[in-house]
Amino acid sequence: MTTTHRTDGGTDDPNDDGSRDPGPGGPDAPDASGAGASPGDGDGELSREEADELIEEIERRRSLQGTAAVAVAAVGILFSIFQLFLAARSFTFTVWLPTVEFAGISLAPWQVSLQLLQANAIHVAFALVLTFLLFPGSMGDGIVSRNLGRIVPAISRQFGGNNPLTRLATSVRSAFRWAFLDPDRERVTPFDLLCIAAAILSALYFLTEFSEIQNMRVFGIDSGRPVTEVFAFLRPLLGGVPFVSEYSYAMILGVTGVLLVLEATRRTLGLPLMIIVATFIVYARWGYLISSGTPFLGLLAIPELTWPDIVQNLWYNTENGVFGIPVTVSVSFIYIFILFGSFLEMSGAGQWFIDLAYALTGGRKGGPAKASILASGFMGTISGSSIANTVTTGAFTIPLMKRSGYSPEFSGAVESSASSGGQILPPVMGAAAFLMVQYTATPFADIIILSTIPAIVFFFGVWVMVHLKAVEEGIGGVSDEDTVSFWSHLQRGWFYLVPIGLLLYYLIIERLSVSRSAWFTLVALVALIAFIAAYSEETRVRLFGILAAIVGLNLASHVLAGVPLTGLVTGSGGAGLPIADAVSAVSAGIEWYVMLAGALTLLSKPDLDATLLELNPTIQDTATDLGERTDRDLGDSQPFKLGTFVVKSMDEGARTAVPVVIAVAAAGIIPGVISVSGLGPNLTSLLLALSGGSKVIMLLVTAVASIILGMGMPTTVTYIILISMLATPLVQFGIPLLAAHLYILYFGVIADITPPVAVAAYAASGVAKSDPFQTGVKAFSLSLNKAIVPFAFVFVPGIVLLRRKENAAELAIREQYRVVNFADLADLSYSVPEILIPVVGVFLGVIALGATVIGTLYTRVDRLGRTVFAFSSLLLMAPGMLSESVFDVLGLFGVSVSVNALLLDLALRGVGFVLFALFALRNRRTSEGEGDGAVGAGEPTGSAAVAADSEST
Fold first, then answer.
1. For a FRET experiment, which of 77, 106, 642, 823 has its CA 20 to 30 Å from that of 605?
2. Which residues contact 853 (CB under 8 A, 6 or more apart)?
3. For the chain, how many structural domains are there in total?
4. pTM of the prediction?
């Protein structure tokens, strides 16, 4: 029987009509558009399988079975193991192997020492292999496939079906389809295997011929050996071919590698991004043809570059190109955090957080929508993907929102809008935040600090809008059976909060590197899950006894021989340690001892009922499936389920990371071209000239470019491209470097819910069964504060806790600001006018914006009220945008104005506050004056009133 998970921890029977509830008013009730809803358009929760299928459909992933599925899992697990070695030991590590010598063959631990370029190349090669396994090259629905598909019918009409030419064309078409097409997304094609082989060859070249690559940095890529010298067996076949002897093997691999990245980009991220990246490569080769004397456009003229120069800089370089800074950040930071999120999700934390959100807010006015916001925020700590957050959380939240009275479009808009905020919500955030660490040379702890207030403002803004919508429609909370008790739920799963607390501790208190913090947190998470899985009334004495024995033996080993017990057994001991040092050494590895104690306890009681732990249902399904395949009962074996949890988490982490790695590899080509061509300074000059010296125009250009470029593309790609082109011009206007980067990031995130593409909103509409475009429009309107807040902190950096340094005049423009500290906050002459008042103004402005968008505060807001609320919102949130615009206009007429910027900012916020307070009071008096006989703030209206009436009858 197929089951779906409810927020109360139970299951829904698909034979129960309530699992496909047609919504308030019965099956014939009108939907949001006024049309009758068909029985097939119910709003029941999506099952996990349906949610996975929806994600695969949106991302165009394959659903592989058999050997191909095993291959994907094996490659994904190896990818994760490789990254775990890098996180634990950096680029020099030992692969443990038993020391054995048999029949003249010696086996010993393998010492691995990688250079950065080699590590990056292996990282990208893993992603390329998984891309060609997971994403079809063509499903036959593309422009090229459709046009080629017309050739055979045209020949048949011209010459007849039995003509030899027609039969030949038919055979060629069949061969083409066999080699390239995968219409059902269920098989790996020969072309995929060819691409996989090329990706592996490229990685092997970096591993085996790195000395030749180092020489090429001095003598050029043409100094490398030709193919016939690398593979001597090809000399009789290809030795006389001019092309083969003309170019080096490194050149051929470099061209192939760049083409593979472009093809992987097309498969995972779409044709538009591939075209953009390819255009930059073409520009690098022929951009010299642009005349430097052409007005404006002449600034894009570059020196002439040859193909060997371009390929060497794009493929054999860690400064820029495919293996540049973005991939370095992916190797060092991004992957390990994705893996951490995968482990957290597979541990069951995702469902627990969703239930926690309902326990906190489900019973409030508009409770389902508010729970959706909280759940999406919680899920943001697990996954930075807008689509994954939307579908995973929305499968539970959207049906409940629809049942409570929200329209399908509004329900989908709330979920997609809140889910898009996962990329800007500390402490994990999205991949772009880790790129910000590298590009700005800022500790991740500081990125967390400066990102916190804007993220809270965003989620608060969506919260306000759904509350006002609930006031307008008279929507209450969910019923008691759809929620759980907060305290009982917290007691049951409090341990899911421990990894997030540890992560913050390592990042902010210990101030460890991002990769080390993630590694320690990941190990602690696995140890915690092993311990919770082994803990029960029956085994707790045994569990603590085993843990005490392990700790005691290791403590004694350190005291006696200065090494852990494993070292003592292998004979590597030496002088003992003082007891204090031994305790410190044992404490440093306590998570490993906890993990071992949990595993040993489970092995001693394999049929234990782990009552405290509810792993992701995927773990149970995988264990059961493997048991059926091996004719063994593994579904109830707790040790096997624990091992499945670890392996499945690594597999899922690799699958999630693939699009991100391909995105950063492809996007790295663009700053690579800008660097090798020397375009950067000219591009800055061009943008400054086009803006006419106006900060507002420059910000608007950046915002529009971010939204347009980000449509249908990952935020990571948008961020890399735009900071390469626009970050420097923004800083030239005096905007703090970190504020400029955060500004670009915010507008890149907005693109996920901006029509006409709006990928997150499209995903939500699939769950809500709503109109995709209308869902996107509503999602964008709910996220309007996300578009205004960046202007607010650009003009007033105190909102993101940035302060101008005392000696700023002596420093480079990029180094003039710093993150505030406690002394700054204690300085009331600074913190009150530049932090407290602007932050309070932003929160009040969000409420005014909500009244503008929804059209309700205490009661309906008339047209004049909405206009005033909109104006007050701008004054409260970003008065600098208005004042700068006025000054720019006056400057066109030669009028120069000199004012105290801080006093003007405070004065405009004061005006905004007065307007907001007056019209809020006016609206409240209107509400009170309507009396009991009119529709008030607490009464249902419209469809919600119909639903309430039907329930009462």
1. 77
2. 465, 781, 782, 784
3. 3
4. 0.84
